[in-house]
Amino acid sequence: MRKRIDKEDISVHARHRDSAESRATILKAAERVYAEHGLAGARTEAIAAAAGVNKALLYYYFKSKDDLYQAVVGSQVHEFQQRAREILSAKGPAGPILLQYVGYHFDFIGTHPHYPRIFQRMMMESDRRLERLIREHSMPLKELLVAVLGRGIRSGEFRHVNKGHTIVSISGLTTHYFNIAPAFRMITGQDPYSKANLARRKAEVLNFIRYALFMNPEAAAQ
Fold first, then answer.
1. Within this chain, do residues 42 and 141 fall inside the same structural domain, yes or no?
2. Backbone angle region of 38, left / alpha / beta, with phi > 0 → left and psi within -120 to 50 → alpha
3. pTM of the model
4. Residues 67-113 pLDDT 10s
């Protein structure tokens, strides 16, 4: 027998959908404002205006500007970390796993343009949350990367390298392009986030890693 759906059920579902959409809209607007001004410089009025909502609704979903900031940072970190850990924890040859991880990292930042700016500001402002993020998320990810590099060295896929410095080098290759995106735009007159530029840069990053790290870079490219 088909269950009857009354108006109250429909209203509850509609309110839930609207609430989720409103919260997501506020988070997206806050992400832009925090990237531009940091926590100290951001104003709730500016965030509400960017989201197209009144300030009361902003406080309905988030208790304070600090809570909203934590929600913005947390949502980005958790989204990235979950998939990154899945990739790095996979079984199999280390080379394809490392390249998949680097490609995912690049794509994630490419679709989250405010991500690097927010974390740059956290480092510049000595944000107290940064230590917790590093301890809870960056350190476990680093250990997974160390394990993948170690496996690749033992199997003969990778050259014998200093694993810690290799991780720093890979991170720099992946993120530096986005950190200098404003300068790239001014110097070249091009959009660093255009589909063509992102594809070209990603290909160059992966190719550089192959020739810097892999024992057989031509085979790794196939």
1. no
2. left
3. 0.80
4. 888 888 877 788 888 899 999 999 999 999 999 999 999 999 998 88
